[in-house]
Amino acid sequence: MRPDTPAENVDHTAEAARLERTAGLYPEDAEALLLRAAAHLELSGDRPAAAALYDRLLASDAELESPYLVRALKASNLWEYGHEAEARAIIDGIRAAAPRDPAPWVIVGESLEAHDELEQAHETFTEAVRLLLTDVPEPPAAAHPLLFGRHRVRRMLGAAHDEWDALADTVHSLPVTLDELHDPKRVWSLGSENPAELEAEISRLRAEVGAYRTALSRPFPVALLHWPADELTELLEAYPSLAAEYPSHEEHLAAIEAALRELASSGTPNLGIVPGTVPSYEAFAASEGTTPDDADLLPQYATTLAARGRALPWPPQRSAPCWCGSGRAYGECHGV
């Protein structure tokens, strides 16, 4: 199912079951797959079943990549079907923990906003932007919803623009300004009998829907396979015949960057990089009924990882950590 498929054409219960089965086949991707399954269950109206999936993830022995995001989604879901006290307790815990990932802050802030807790939503968004964006030269794309959410809540509260609102305006790229999108009076204009007002509001809504559709309908990226240094060493020790593909780790990294730049210059959109691991590659080879020393298997492995949501978008922002894992900013490493 493509994520932009109309909701009326989707059997959310069946899709959730399919994703749960897939999670059983690929335990290393269980977190991402089960979160998607829980989202489908919420859309189907089976919120208790979605809560059970969140609990399953939180009770798992495996270390979660985004434990606070799982908690935030659980809190948002609980609040929607009457468990407000438990949801508030989870939200308070997330805010006290102050995670460095923008995603749980966005979920918590929007959940508070959806339940008319505008002052609490404003405090949450503000805490997040101060924690994550103070002294940051360029806000990462993942943090943009924090700025937009804070701007939206402040418009509803009637607060004057401040420096964070100005920053939100600079990263906003739609033709309709944030002040227009977040104007509380827009709700009233939908009930107007004035054709000009209705037409203006329809144009604004089309701009919003177009932006959401673009974000949701991105295809799987054209992804190149990246072997971290220790994984490449293990791979070549186990399968020496692949040394022809990877003369050295430095050349491997340089070849990835060069290939991606060539693809970008030719107009290829939505590029990405997928990190590989030897156990995962061996399991993939076994599932394909072949041996890992088959070099033709490498691009298929990369494509499969990308389809399972493992790809990292390329290029990173210049101030973001380089994709190669050096710990340096991309602009000072492979982005030079």
Can you tell me about this structure?
It contains 16 helices and three strands. With 336 residues, it is mainly α. A three-stranded mixed beta sheet has the order 1-2-3, sandwiched between helices. The protein has helices at residues 12-25, 30-44, 47-59, 67-80, 84-97, 102-114, 118-133, 144-157, 163-171, 178-181, 186-189, 195-216, 229-238, 249-265, 278-287, 297-307; strands at residues 222-226, 271-275, 312-314. The radius of gyration is 23 Å and the shape is globular. Helices cover 60% and strands 4% of the residues.
N-to-C terminal Cα separation, in Å?
Answer: 39 Å
In percent, how much strand structure appears in the residues? under 5%
**Overall average residue pLDDT:** 87
- Total number of beta strands: 3
**Number of alpha- plus pi-helical segments:** 16
| Sheet with most strands: strand arrangement | 1-2-3
Using the alpha-carbon principal axes, give the shape: globular
- Computed over alpha carbons, the radius of gyration is 23 Å
